[in-house]
Known about the structure:
Chain A is mainly alpha-helical. Chain A has helices at 2-8, 12-37, 43-60, 66-90, 95-118, 127-133, 141-160, 162-170, 172-177, 182-204, 209-221, 227-252, 261-279, 285-289.
Amino acid sequence: MIDTLLSLFDVPALRTVAPGAALLGAAAGAVGCFAVLRRQSLQGDVVSHAALPGVAVAFLLGARSPVLLVLGGAVAGWVALVLVGVVGRGSRVPADAALGGTLAVFFGLGLALMQRAQKLPGAGANPLDRYLFGQAANLREPDLWVIGGVGALALFVLALAWKELKLLAFDPDYAASVGLPVRGLDLLLTTLTVAAVVIGLKAVGVVLMTALLVAPAAAARQWTNRLGVMVLLAMGFGAFSGAGGTLLAHHLSAPLKAVPTGPTIVLVASVVVAASLAFGGARGLVWTAWPRPVKQDG
Amino acid sequence: MGELILVLAVVAAACAVPGVFLVLRRAALVSDAIGHTLILGIVLAYFATRDVDSPWLLVGAALTGLLTVVLVELLQRTRLVKADAAIGLVFPALFALGVVLVSVSHVRSVHLDIDAVLLGQPDLATVPRWRVAGVAVPPVWVMGAVLAANVGLCGLLFKELKLSTFDPGLAASLGFRPGLMHYGLMAVVSVTAVAAFDAVGPVLVVGFFVVPAATAYLLTDRLAVLIGLACGVGAAGAGAGVYAADRLDTNTAGAVAAALGGLFGLAFLFAPQRGQVALLLKRWERRRAFEETMLAVHLYGHEGTPAEADEARCDGLHRHLNWTPARVAAVVERATDRGLVVRAGEVLKLTEAGRERARAVFGESVAA
């Protein structure tokens, strides 16, 4: 049994890819809990799309190393979220329209810049494709260190500011009234979201990274009412989706039919969500579908 | 290039009409979700028909758009997840399913090519693809028909749309069926997104829906004007974007989205009433008016009292008002210009207009 399980991993590429995807899922799951609780699930969507022009600008400025490209993406994603806030607060445009509009405008700008970048000499293999859908198969050991390092840093920050972030997530008004720097904490969470999204760009791509933030957290929410447990569960679900999706994609792929890893990871995460919605905790849809027997007191 | 501008301008205008209602109803992100999930409908319809040129692909895509909306709402209604998370769960799942199906299906046509699916191929948007009874229909006609249908529906149901958008409660009590209006709007969004899909792809389509409408929303308070302006903004963005893409030799749909963003930025900064510059000027004006009123109130309070000679002395005002001398000088100069005060030797005297301003603060009526 164990041998069969181990043989699943017995592909050299998977030894780096599956752990990388698992680490990514865990980090995104933890950060995603706060996004979901604060009803900002779609922030990740904006960041991941808006990272594209940043990657392109970094490339046009001469950056070639993945770390610098991702850093460019992070800056652009961060700028986009700040702009969403500025437009949402500074005008009567509703917040959701600000999100959607910023996402599309940044992505469009990114496409235009990318097409320019690809015409530069030395652009080499299609960088555009790599960041749109991600190619988990391209994960190498250095990427693993980046994902692990940034992920661990994000977790460390979450642990340090745990009490404050918890209060911000559940009662922002009270947090402000007791003198917490609400705007600063908000910016901190934004930065963590950006960090979690950009380390996933190479593996999962811009379009689907948002699911890795939302799905594990939403699934974990079904099983518990305690934030600590929720974060741990979300990390577990995220890691499971990452590793499981990678393995599934690998074993479904035939020589001519390459099943893309990113979407498969998202599908696994979606199944986890569906199962959690159906069976999770006392509120599970399966349990509430039938009228509960009336409890006798005493 | 002219034809390309025309196609994209019509696409942008056709999206802008339902886009206005999406923005006003705070449903902008539904168009993001619909845009992404269309791919699943196209793939499934292709599996059923095995023909990439079949009009059924359009139907399949439009149905998936509606399915997305229904799924998001069902998920919300379980109350297990919030509205934003419901969107964030449904569309990546359906989109991922679509992408996986495309990848394993060996389909490599213009329409189902994965890059084309994501990015749109505006440079092919002028190539006829739909065939009706064996005759190739130019895409601009297809988009033109969608635009005409959207404008027609909007005109026909203007009153109903308006009421159910601004006051759903009243609309329901008057028997206007806001739920029906909602799903009707979503159906229109789906069909429009499908038609725009070739030209702009699923990601940018949300920009075509939302950005022109949001831009126009900063410029007017009247719904009919808003819709017209949004169409105009969309068409202008299409023109500017196609031109820029041509000059810079780059992605057309992306450039149009960026141009739309630029137009929004201009409106955000310079809109006559709601632009940031106008708001800043208004704030300055309020601050100045407040300073002048303060001065008038101070003078009024000491008018005709023995202390007036000291309190109203020009060189002593900064101590009494606790302002810097420079600020006092500026305020006195403005108040003089505006006829609120006059200088009488060393002291400052209120004019009748200045007295009026001060009395208004104390709520004393003009007659008194």
